[in-house]
Automatic annotation (TrEMBL):
InterPro entries given in the database record: MobA_MobL (IPR005053)
Protein name, entry field: MobA/MobL protein domain-containing protein
Keywords from the named record: Conjugation
Similarity section: Belongs to the MobA/MobL family.
Gene3D superfamilies linked: 3.30.930.30
Domain MobA/MobL protein: start-end pairs: 174-332
Length: 648
């Protein structure tokens, strides 16, 4: 399960170089076979316990909902050795002569058991560092300064080395500084703080950007008055090509300067902020802000988040630190207990996330189906629009499934090609010894074993690859079918809308014509009534006394019947004529205004415009080759002639 299937559920790390271990076993195998006797090297390779079949121990970095991702940032302290903590190994006679005490449970790089000494190292003995106190070494601070500045490790660009700090400009003086710190602090005291942090690998940031990030991080220590020095390291040959990282060393006692004898002058008091509980968290947060600003300036779409998985809302247990010893064994292909636990925890989390995602997709499909049923049941007018959405959802679902299966097929094909190449190299080297009289028998025996072993692997991977390829072919056919149905629904919806637009345009034109007819009849009726009232007004004016204007009659009518005093004309007759002419005049004025407005708006015939749009839809259907499918759906409407008759 750990050999192949871990690659299928990796969240994005398979698309580029893998972080973590590379298969050093494969490199060592090919290198040994090409540069020395193949048969004996094959035996030595098997005896070295380097297993090329054990996969790389990979871990993933999940991304939070806000797009943030964790990063490597480690801060450790280095203590000076104390008098009661020094151990040595050597001749038992020399140890007995010096009166040293033997401790059988002390572990060191040479084995178990060592002698403890207090003052000077006795003759014939060699000082060792214990595993439990590996950070307690004499001169370890200065040695680590030289280690981070070793040749071919520091990034170098445009004639500038990515090595900055405020301790001193020369490497030897910086080593002298740490020796002075060790003498100044005494035994058992913390003398050096070491920061190891991941750096961006993007070309858009480049060496100058990484050096600027280191300088900004060191500026934080400058503000605190602390001596520091940092370098940017290149990725090692056997590691991931993205493994750019920085080393920064600092001391928590401020450096006041250097005296005339080239000795550092320290402050009396240490900076207590370094010992605070929030110092590491604040420094990590500041570093994330510095890197995120560099991402933003360079246009890199990444975001580093200094928070924990729990604070980021990621349901994943924290990863266990394996240590250099375990990582070294895993890189050689030797499975360790802690490495196995880390791999099992990673796989358990990946399978859990995969299962959650699968359940989430099933619920989403069920919700879409439920919405479709409700929409079709409650509103028949939206049936075509809902069909388009369902067809699109099915198309995207099939595309997603086919994409995942395609990645699976590529992974199996990669494994298959890798095994074939490895078998070819081993087989070609062993075949050179088949004709040798001394090694022929052994070579043939190893060749048969090799062929049987790889034959079983080829068979298993071949079956898995064929099964994955059949599933991929099936998924691709489903994608084509879903895409075809989606396009049919889209064109069908456009055609239905075009037909509806034509029907609305025809109805609108008929309504306009009927409205014009009604307006003309109404206008004639009003003119006829106006003429009748004008005749009545002439009759009434003849009955009025000479010199009486009609305006006086209109004012008296407006005052009401109670103030009417004329005897020659009754109030009813006068009010009927005055009010009738007034109302008819207003109606005629409003009617003429509307008629003038309609005449001023010269628009294109909506029926012609709607039919033109339908022609474009039918042409698009013919070009897409979906005429037959849509014709079956709507009863052959697409096969009708595309002739447009202008309305009379």
């Amino acid at each position: 399960m750990r050999i192949f299937f871990d690659d299928l559920l990796d969240g994005g790390e398979d698309t580029g170089p893998k972080l973590g271990r590379v298969t050093m076993a494969e490199e060592a195998l090919i290198k040994r076979l090409l540069h020395s006797d193949p048969l004996w090297d094959f035996k030595r390779f098997a005896a070295s316990r380097r297993n090329p079949l054990v996969p790389a121990l990979k871990t993933s970095r999940p991304i939070s909902a806000s797009g943030g991702q964790t990063f490597v940032f480690s801060l450790k302290g280095w203590q000076s050795v104390g008098a009661s903590q020094r151990y040595c190994v050597g001749q038992p006679a020399a140890a007995q002569k010096a009166g040293l005490t033997y401790h059988p449970n002390i572990r060191h790089p040479g084995g178990i058991g060592a002698f403890r000494f207090d003052e000077s190292l006795p003759a014939g003995m060699r000082e060792v560092s214990t595993f439990n106190g590996a950070r307690l070494r004499v001169g370890g601070a200065a040695a680590f300064q030289a280690y981070i500045e070793r040749d071919d490790a520091v990034e170098f660009s445009a004639g500038i080395e990515s090595s900055v700090g405020n301790i001193h400009g020369e490497t030897e003086f910086r080593k002298m500084f740490w020796d002075a710190v060790e003498r100044r602090e005494g035994g058992g005291k913390r003398i050096q703080h070491r920061v190891i942090a991941e750096l961006p690998y993007e070309e858009a940031i480049g060496p100058e950007g990484r050096r600027d990030i280191l300088s900004q991080l060191g500026a934080i220590l400058d503000d605190m008055g602390l001596p520091w020095h940092g370098v940017v390291h290149l990725p090692e040959k056997q590691s991931d090509p993205r493994n750019y990282h920085l080393h920064l060393l600092f001391h928590d006692r401020p450096l006041l300067g250097w005296d005339s004898w080239d000795q550092p002058i320290f402050a009396r008091m240490k900076n207590q902020k370094v010992r605070g509980q929030s110092f590491i968290k604040d420094l990590r947060t500041s570093y994330a802000k510095i890197v995120n600003k560099a991402f933003e300036r360079s246009g890199v779409k990444r975001l580093w988040d200094p928070r924990t998985y729990l604070e980021m809302g990621i349901d994943k247990p924290p990863q266990q630190h394996l240590g250099s010893a375990v990582v070294g064994l895993e890189r050689r292909g030797i499975v360790t207990a802690r490495g196995k636990q880390a791999a099992e925890a990673e796989m358990a989390w990946r399978y859990r996330e995969f299962e959650i995602e699968r359940i989430r997709k099933r619920l989403a499909v069920a919700e879409r189906l439920d919405r479709r049923i409700v929409t079709v049941r409650d509103n028949e007018n939206k049936a075509s629009t809902t069909a388009i959405r369902i067809a699109q959802a099915r198309y995207l679902e099939t595309v997603t499934r086919a994409t995942k299966q395609y990645v699976t097929v590529l992974d199996w094909q990669h494994q298959q090609k890798w095994l074939h190449e490895r078998h070819r190299v081993l087989r070609s080297r062993l075949e050179l010894l088949l004709e040798d009289s001394e090694c022929g028998t052994s070579a043939r025996r190893y060749t048969r074993k090799l062929d049987r072993f790889y034959g079983r692997l080829f068979g298993n991977i071949g079956v898995a690859t064929q099964y994955a390829q059949r599933r991929l072919d099936k998924d691709r056919k489903q994608v084509e079918t879903a895409q075809h149905n989606w396009l049919v629904e889209v064109h069908l919806e456009k055609l239905i809308r075009a037909n509806g637009a034509i029907e609305r345009a025809v109805s609108e034109m008929a309504w306009k014509k009927s409205r014009e007819t009604r307006t003309g009849k109404e206008y004639d009726t009003l003119l006829e009534r106006q003429r009748s009232f004008l005749k009545k007004r002439v009759i009434l004016r003849n009955r009025l006394p000479d010199g009486t204007a009609w305006d006086e009659v209109e004012r008296e009518v407006n005052r009401g019947p109670k103030s009417w005093e004329r005897m020659d004309v009754s109030w009813e007759e006068a009010s009927e004529v005055v009010l009738g002419l007034r109302n008819i005049g207003r109606k005629l004025e409003r009617l003429v205004r509307n008629m003038t407005k309609d005449e001023g708006a010269v628009d294109e015939n909506p029926v012609i415009q709607a039919r033109r749009e339908k022609v474009q839809v039918l042409r698009a259907i013919r070009e897409s080759g979906l005429t037959e499918d849509i014709s079956r759906r709507i009863g052959g409407i697409v096969r009708r002639k595309l002739e447009i008759k202008r309305p009379r």
